[in-house]
Amino acid sequence: MVPSRRQILMAGAVAASAIVSIRPALANTAASVLNCTIPVPDQARAGKYIAPNGQVVPAGTAGAVPTQGRSYSGEEVRRALRGGRLPGTSYEQNQAYLNYIRRLQSGTSGFTCYASLQMPR
After folding, report:
1. Residues 6+ apart with CB under 8 A from 36
2. Which among 19, 26, 33, 100 has most CB atoms closer than 10 A?
3. Sheet containing 65-66: which strands, arranged edge to edge?
4. pTM of this structure
5. In this predicted model, which residue has the larger pLDDT, 89 or 27?
C-alpha cells in the first residue's frame, strides 16, 4: 500500500515535533553535566590522602598528597581532563586527583557525574 500525501505530511509533522522536544532535553542534559560535582575524595574518606595512582590512602602516606576536602564541577573536571588543571591544585595534586576521578566506580559519590562527562555529545 502506498501512503497518501496526507499520511506522509502527518508523519513529517510527528517527526518534527519529536526533534523539537528532544533538542532542549539534550541541551539541558549537557548543561547539567557541566554543573554536577565530584568530591575528592567522597565524604566517607574525608581527611585521607590521594596516592599518585589515585588510590585513597591514610593521611601522611609518603608520596601521597593531601586533599582539599572540596568538590569540583563537571566543567572543571572536563577542562582538567583535556590538559588543564583543577582549580587550586599543584601539579602533583592535579595528577593524583584526576587519577582518583578516573578510578571512580559505580556507587561512589561523583561517579555519575564523571560517567556523564565521558558520554559523547
Report:
1. 73, 74, 112, 113, 116
2. 100
3. 56-57, 49-50, 65-66
4. 0.71
5. 89
